[in-house]
Amino acid sequence: MSRSRAAATGSAALGCAIAGGAATGYAVQILAYTICAAIGAPWLIIAGVIFKVMGLAVAGLVFFAAAVVFTFVTLPVEFGASRRALAYVEPLGLNGERADGARSVLRAAGWTYVAAALTALLTFLYYLWLVFGSRR
């Protein structure tokens, strides 16, 4: 099995682990994805800034802040999914380069959520500056 095939196995296992986690009571994860997908907070912020309606912009900031908080709250769930995926992969008998490839893909998958959380935080700070800091 090539390294890329081992990586694909790791990715598939991560998907199974996330699905398994959702099925076994990771309600926080499901709630976080639902909230993040449903909220149009950036549009509220932008509309509030363009039309100079401070209440609308602040409401957008509050909703976006909630999405940022949920992004950080779900980080342990995502790393847990990576650990569960590795547990799915280990019985397959991967060893050497194959096991290393699967491990590195699963580790990278967890870190993508850290990057997303930091990006969400920086975006929130930008919107905060846009609403409160750019007024003269």
Structure description:
With 136 residues, this protein is an all-alpha fold. The protein has one domain. It has helices spanning 3-23, 27-38, 41-50, 54-73, 75-89, 97-133. Helix 1 crosses helix 5 (75-89), helix 1 (3-23) packs across helix 6 (97-133) and helix 5 packs antiparallel against helix 6. The protein is elongated.
Structural class: mainly alpha
Number of strands: 0
Largest sheet: none
What sequence of helices (H) and strands (E) makes up the elements?
HHHHHH
Which word captures the global form? elongated
Low-confidence stretches: 6-10
Mean pLDDT, all residues: 77
Q: Total number of helical segments?
A: 6
Report the C-alpha radius of gyration, rounded: 19 Å
Mind sketching the topology for me?
Elements: H1 3-23, H2 27-38, H3 41-50, H4 54-73, H5 75-89, H6 97-133
Helix pairs in contact: 1-5, 1-6, 2-4, 3-4, 4-6, 5-6
